[in-house]
Write a structure and sequence with these properties.
By secondary structure, the protein is mainly alpha-helical. It folds into three domains: 110 residues, P-loop containing nucleotide triphosphate hydrolases (Rossmann fold), CATH 3.40.50; 50 residues, no CATH class; 93 residues. It contains 15 helices and seven strands. The strands form three sheets. Strands 1-4-7 form a three-stranded parallel beta sheet, with helices on both faces. It has a two-stranded antiparallel ribbon with strand order 2-3. Strand 5 and strand 6 form a beta hairpin. The chain starts with a helix and ends with a helix. The mean pLDDT is 89.
């Protein structure tokens, strides 16, 4: 539900593979693009140790030995030893793909620079292998929670789509589809309660995913009605900051009353 669900739905609709990259501080190309399988390379050097002795046999010095070994450099830096990460997997997918770069605002500016080549030319440069270019350009979806300002260069390569909170009718429909076990009466009160919370001055307003989680929690508790005690006891499912919980606790009577109207 929400921004991330957009990528899942697009992948299903277009019948494409979905590759997801979860961003975080310190994310680099070894975790997002590719890295070499150093363990496998080391294992192969051990296996080929005897053959290496034959290659170096008769070498006249260090330079001669090095030149002989360099002839085999391409063997260890080939596709066989390349570990593809989500960005490269999406680019090289033979049938195209949907690439979700989730919460890009949590990454560093250095990672943004890495994305520029991909989103500009849909290609990446690997020094040992050359340029890898997408035969079929992936559909790329970047999500952000606006925890920091995204650079202008990256913004220019994207189309902006703002997904607001759903209105009452839409949220009820979503809840009916995702949690069909909940009664119509409880569904109405639950959604109205959440809609009321979103008018408060909170650090983090509850999203539709939290509404769904709350509904599932009430189902597990065999709740038939939304009363003040139940709402207070389960606010931690809906809200993620203690200061927000304390604010909402004071408003529960009014929110319950409005939801029952």
């Amino acid at each position: 539900v929400g921004k991330t669900e957009l990528a899942n739905t697009a992948a299903k609709y277009y019948k494409k593979s979905l590759f997801r990259l979860q961003c975080y501080e310190g994310l680099d190309e070894s975790k997002s693009l590719y890295e070499w399988r150093y363990g496998k390379q080391l294992l192969y050097t051990q296996i080929l140790k005897e053959q290496m002795k034959e290659v170096l046999e008769g070498a006249t010095g260090l330079k001669d030995s090095l030149n002989r070994l360099l002839k085999f450099e391409d063997i260890f830096f080939s596709e066989e030893f390349l570990e593809e990460r989500p960005l490269l997997k999406a680019l090289t997918s033979p049938e195209g793909a949907v690439l979700l770069i989730d919460e890009v605002d949590k990454s560093d500016e250095e990672f943004e620079a890495l994305l520029l080549e991909i989103l500009s030319e849909f290609q990446v440069s690997i020094p040992e292998l050359g340029v890898k270019k997408a035969n079929i350009k992936p559909l790329v979806i970047l999500t952000s929670n606006n925890s920091r300002e995204i650079g202008d260069a990256l913004k220019r390569r994207c189309l902006h789509l703002y997904i607001p909170f759903p209105d009452v009718k839409l949220e009820r429909r979503i809840l009916e589809a995702r949690v069909p076990e909940i009664s119509a009466s409880l569904r109405k009160k639950l959604v109205d309660f959440v809609q009321g919370i979103r008018h408060l001055d909170l650090k983090k307003l509850p999203s539709i995913s939290e509404t769904i989680d709350w509904a599932k929690t009430l189902i597990l508790l065999n709740a038939k009605e939304l009363d003040p005690k139940l709402a207070k006891d389960t606010l931690n499912v809906l809200l993620k900051h203690q200061q927000d919980i304390e604010v909402v606790e004071k408003e529960i009577p009014g929110l319950i009353s409005s939801a029952a109207g």
